[in-house]
Amino acid sequence: MSAKERHQQSRLLRGIHRTLTGLHPALESLIAGLVGLLVGAILMYIWGFDPIKAYSALIQGAYGGSYEWANTLAWATPLILTALTFSICLRAGMFNIGAEGQMYMGAIAAVCVAYFTLPSGLHQMVGLLFAAVVGAAWSLIPAALKLMRGVSEVISTIMFNWIAKWLALFFVIRVLVDPMRAEKTISLPPSARFSILVPGTSLSYALFVSIAFALVIYFLLWHTTTGYELRAAGLNPTAARYGGIRNKRTMFLSFILGGVAAGLAGATIVMGLPPTYAVFGGMPQLMNLGFNGMAVAMVGRNHPIGIMIAAVFFGGLSAGASWMQIKAGVPLEMVNVVMGAIVLAMSIPELIRVFPMAANASKNLLQTIRRGIRGATKEESA
């Protein structure tokens, strides 16, 4: 295939999304965001809260100054990576719901470098490498089950999230525990930590790890033959096979890249937080970041650049939520309802686009369950 033909087909792949609604994806997201804000305002007004005051507090708490921006970007740093985990696999036609577990394993791997004595810079690189390799290795198990046994990746990745959670807790309590402070793991030495970018905040240089990886994925997916094959396999596996694309290879590649992203997300947490601790009891600071990344991917239209923008938006929601409570007197429950309405509205356009793919995945999932039930019934009757 010539370079001109690849370019034309790549433009076609990018244009498929626009034909769904007739609008540019950015305009779709903007309209959806305004609808979400309107729904949230109506809900607050019905329950007796001032929506203007609440949204003003939200914006001020998220983007009102350098301190607020730093907190927003600190929240966004791991979300960029966990969103890429879901997005990369979705581009290849796979549903990787395992970012949470892969992130836990990456975090544990990053903590293990505390046992090494290395110079600064090299120590950080080793920590990131360990986290990336372990995250990728953990993601390959569901991929192998899918390829060799036909196990739905939705089921296997969700199950492996729980395995990773309790395995990580075992390491925290029994293996990596600080002998002087039983409520946490051993602390990472200063040479293995990312320096704080803005004093007095949690924003560290780990932000640049997330941005760099997102840009690498963007270049890979949209400017290389491998990326083209991965996206083509996700859009139409049958046509991709007919065109000589090896779908099994693209599936494994998507899971590997997704696992690397999730592992790096865990590393940015344990290596980028202030140096008072590495990991507290079971890593609550990592909790739900993998699942939140799925929402970020939907809002960012499963595009690396869109994901970075969406992560900053989500980070602003997280950073500004407390200001809505303090400045506008909106209770936490109502804040969560409003945030949910905004996120849901902004996710709908992408959900509509991927719905056929989700329907196929659900169909395969049901078939797998039926086969399992039939097999169990036959064994009982025998």
Counting helices, strands and paired strands, the structural category is mainly alpha
Q: How many individual β-strands? A: 2
Low-confidence region ranges? 8-20
Number of helices: 14
Radius of gyration: 22 Å
Q: Identify the CATH class.
A: Mainly Alpha
Helix content estimate: over 70%
CATH architecture: Orthogonal Bundle
Principal-axis shape equals globular
* Structural domain tally: 1
Largest β sheet strand count, sense and barrel closure? 2 strands, antiparallel
State mean pLDDT (0 to 100 scale).
Answer: 84
Write down the secondary-structure element order. HHHHHHHEEHHHHHHH
Distance, first to last CA: 55 Å
Named CATH topology: ABC transporter involved in vitamin B12 uptake, BtuC
Strand content: under 5%
Strand order of the largest sheet: 1-2
What do these coordinates show?
- The protein is an all-alpha fold.
- The protein has one domain (46-365): ABC transporter involved in vitamin B12 uptake, BtuC.
- The protein has helices spanning 3-16, 25-46, 51-63, 66-91, 99-112, 122-149, 153-175, 206-223, 225-235, 237-242, 247-272, 289-299, 304-328, 332-381; strands spanning 177-178, 181-185.
- The chain has a two-stranded antiparallel ribbon with strand order 1-2.
- A hairpin with a 2-residue loop joins strand 1 (177-178) and strand 2 (181-185).
- Helix 6 (122-149) packs antiparallel against helix 11 and helix 9 packs across helix 11.
- The longest helix is centred in the last third of the chain and has 50 residues, at 332-381.
